[in-house]
Design brief:
The protein is of the alpha+beta class. It contains three helices and five strands. Strands 2-1-3-4-5 form a five-stranded mixed beta sheet, covered by helices on one side. The N and C termini lie far apart (about 30 Å).
């Protein structure tokens, strides 16, 4: 992990979720970080679905765009769109949700929509080394 800062509740934000080590996530993360000083760009934990990695999730206010299999060029376009307050054209899904969401906003369709992510709800959404992100998540074993 390259950072321990909190990302939950931050907008705009760009999250990069890795898969396997050789998936290009580091290059994608570096390209995004080089593009901006005003948008928080962080590496989050994996979503558990390597086929999507590196998965870039761009959040602005009450929506998050999902951009799977991102490249450095793709993430540069995503960061530019976010900087302009626009939804990225490369997004495969855009999910609307409450601002400040502490768990992954699950799309209606696709691999992330399968199953109940109650325990795994923070996977791919929080910085694994950020205590603040886990505190924001709350008690994951309490039924809602």
């Amino acid at each position: 992990m390259t950072t321990a800062c909190s990302v939950v509740g931050t907008t705009p934000a760009v999250r990069v979720a890795p898969g396997r080590q050789a998936d290009g996530s580091e290059a994608v993360l570096e390209a995004a970080q080089e593009m901006t000083e005003t948008i928080q760009v962080v590496e989050v934990g994996p979503t558990g679905i390597d086929a999507l990695a590196p998965l870039v999730m761009a959040t602005v206010d009450d929506w998050t765009a999902f951009v799977p299999q991102s490249t450095p060029d793709t993430v540069r376009d995503v960061v530019e769109s976010v900087h302009n307050g626009e939804q990225p054209t490369a997004a495969s899904r855009i999910v609307t949700h409450a601002e400040g969401r502490a768990t992954l906003p699950v799309p209606d369709a696709g691999p992330l929509a399968v199953g109940d992510r109650r325990v795994l709800a923070a996977c791919g959404w929080v910085v694994p080394t950020s205590e603040e992100d886990y505190v924001a998540r709350g008690d994951m074993l309490v039924r809602e």
